[in-house]
Amino acid sequence: MEPELKIYNDAASVTEAFAKNLARWIKESKSPFFHIALSGGSTPKLLFKHLADNYKDAIEWSKVHFWWGDERMVPADDDESNYKMTNELLLSQINIPEGNIHRIRGEEDPPTESVRYGDEIESLVPEKETWPAFNLIILGMGDDGHTASIFPNQMELLHSLDVCEVATHPSSGQKRITLTGKVLNSAEKTAFLVTGENKADRLQEIFSDSDKGRLLPAYHIHPAGELYWFVDQSAAGELEK
What is the pTM of this model? Predict the structure, then answer.
């Protein structure tokens, strides 16, 4: 489907609007479980706090299974861990079975954990045309156009035949595990949450279908299901031009 672009005043408005949609999608889903792959970053941080404060009892959390679209290879108690942030702001605040939380074990050997996590996803997330199909994947976009941990210098991860791969941050050299492009493009629903003026140029390049845009990993997310972009005015500033 064509992407649906939703523009809001600021990051807080983006998270409030997305949370309403999330609650509705979970409620309306006919699947016995609702599998979500989460993102890290500043906007999800706002989202997780908003969900804990306003949807603690409004969502049937026992139906939801949480996964991660990517993770830094650090221990679960490290401040750089996406899991740690999510756990502190959301998971520890809601009533959810421990078995519904599927973290990437960042303290393990990256290649071994990449295979293990991919196997766990394949064993629990229903397939669509041979690929695991999450009910929802939440994505961010870096100011370099990367999404999950697929960076512009590692575009081959978009076409990998594995569910997960080990990625390397281009500046720090830090190892990460990321879902690959085939999985990102198999979701029922995919939602980008993009806020901030530093994302404006990349967003314009993607939506104008420019040559520069095609060099960005986020450009290549065209899922089989529904695609939404929840953005604030700052990030959308170049689109009107």
Answer: 0.97
